[in-house]
Design goal:
mainly alpha, two-stranded antiparallel sheet, 4 helices, 2 strands, disordered N terminus
Amino acid sequence: MKTTALNHDISLPSYTISDDPNEEIFMLDLLQKFEKIIYIALVILLAIVVIFSVFELGYLVFTSLFTNGIRLETHDLLNLLGFFLLVLIGVELLDTIRVYIEKNEIHVEVIVLLAIIAVARKVIILDPTALDYSLLVGLGVLFFALAAGYYLIKRAGNPFKDWGIS
């Protein structure tokens, strides 16, 4: 245990995991391996959910088309589009986790796009007869903020794009 002097009169103990730097590196490596195992487990579970969601979406399309004839009612169409976007969000999350596992990078652009898709899905599945105006204003502000954030992220990738410089 080392002590660190704050003033000449008072000294507080500082604790470390170990005085041996190799043991700290071992602990960090162990923690990174544990994180990878958790991410792989999340990918497997999310893949299972996406696979079953695709089967359920196919079942919903089949039953919607053949129980009411070829024509879909507006309510059925909105439900199908909302479910389709939900599956798309799951696939994009899988891709995001895969990129993180491979490169240890989080692509903020993809995360913001997922949020935009989620807000669009919410707008699509809303019942227009039971809408509260504050909800619409909140969703509009959220969508505008996400779109502005996405624009800024894309612009930061190439700040001279508007001037024709690549």
